[in-house]
Amino acid sequence: MKKGWLYIAAATILFSTLEIVLKEIAGDFNPMQLTMTRFLAGGIFLLPFAVRAVKTRGARIEARDFRFFALLGLLGIAVSMTFYQLAIMDANASVVATLFSCNPAFVMLFAALLLHEVICRRNLIAIALEVFGIVFIINPFHMQTEPNGIILTLLSVLTFALYGVLGKRKCAKYGGAAVTCMSFLFGAAELLAFAGFSHIPPFAEAMTACGLDAFANIPFLTGYSMDNLWLVLYVYIGTTGIGYASYFTAMEKTSANTASLIFFFKPVLAAVLAFFVLHEAIPYNMVWGIVLILAGSLVNILPGLLFARGKQAPAAEAAEKGLH
């Protein structure tokens, strides 16, 4: 259990720094290029964890599942993470990090709608609190953040939540690490194919004419330098590779509910780091938004944590009696 908390701490720190580091290097790379390469690196890093998860379950990936993983990669990586990277270029890192931390609430909502999972009163309260938190952060009557950044972030959150719900169907069979790894690799491959297509002159000209320069002539290897190499490696291997590996290991060592504490701490830590590193202001509406989102997360997580703790206590007492 203690090791599980170490993995939770590692994933929290890595995930909380992601938007800040991406903000630092965003100007050096095409957003599609950055998304493509970081998830390719992350998928390769997760491959041993994925193989172990599949072997542990005695499963075998079937041909039809590759089509499913391709669809999952398209939704969660090619679409959602492209929105996410574009949002980081237009909005403050702290805003993107905080709004993205609402992902578990939307996962619950989509799970109820698509998988017919039971959604209880506390789940509805949690969703309502997090939605109010989003409204406070956006502050529609006195909006200070670029609207495009907010819209792109919310699109990223919604599509990533849908990706999580659809992926849940295969997690029981193959394990979360395997499903994530395969979606990373397929998503990166799809972005790679799109990048190649973006160099076809008529298509590139059409994208440029529409003001979508990021989708035209997407580079593959440009932008790298000795100045940004360590930050790039931190994003590719650290946050995307080690971060997700720590997250899945934390779930194995503790529980999915306990591991979700990562998204409870992330908005606070990300906002503080953005303040000190990027000198981003934290206005009052942002503070109230974070408080509401934390309250929503707590309403959703706390009952499960208390239940798990209640189950562990008798087991610990029994073990102690057995020693005497």
SSE-based structural type? mainly alpha
Radius of gyration: 20 Å
The sequence of SSEs as H and E is HHHHHHHHHHHHH
Low-pLDDT stretches are 315-324
Total of domains: 1
Sheet of most strands: none
Q: Categorize the overall geometry.
A: globular
Number of discrete helical segments: 13
Helix content: over 70%
Distance between the termini: 23 Å
Overall pLDDT confidence: 87
- How large a portion of the residues is in β-strands, by DSSP E? under 5%
Number of strands: 0
How would you describe the overall organization of this protein?
By secondary structure, the chain is mainly alpha-helical. It has one domain. Helices cover 80% and strands 0% of the residues. The protein is built from 13 helices and no strands. It has helices spanning 2-25, 31-56, 63-90, 93-100, 103-114, 121-138, 147-174, 176-197, 201-209, 229-253, 256-259, 262-277, 284-323. Helix 1 (2-25) packs across helix 4, helix 2 packs antiparallel against helix 8 and helix 12 packs across helix 13 (284-323). The radius of gyration is 20 Å and the shape is globular. The relative contact order is 0.20. Mean pLDDT is 87; it is low at 315-324.
Walk me through the topology.
Elements: H1 2-25, H2 31-56, H3 63-90, H4 93-100, H5 103-114, H6 121-138, H7 147-174, H8 176-197, H9 201-209, H10 229-253, H11 256-259, H12 262-277, H13 284-323
Helix pairs in contact: 1-4, 1-10, 1-12, 2-3, 2-8, 2-10, 3-7, 3-8, 4-7, 4-12, 5-6, 5-7, 6-13, 7-8, 12-13
Domain EamA: 3-138, 149-300
GO cellular component, one term: membrane
Membrane topology: Multi-pass membrane protein
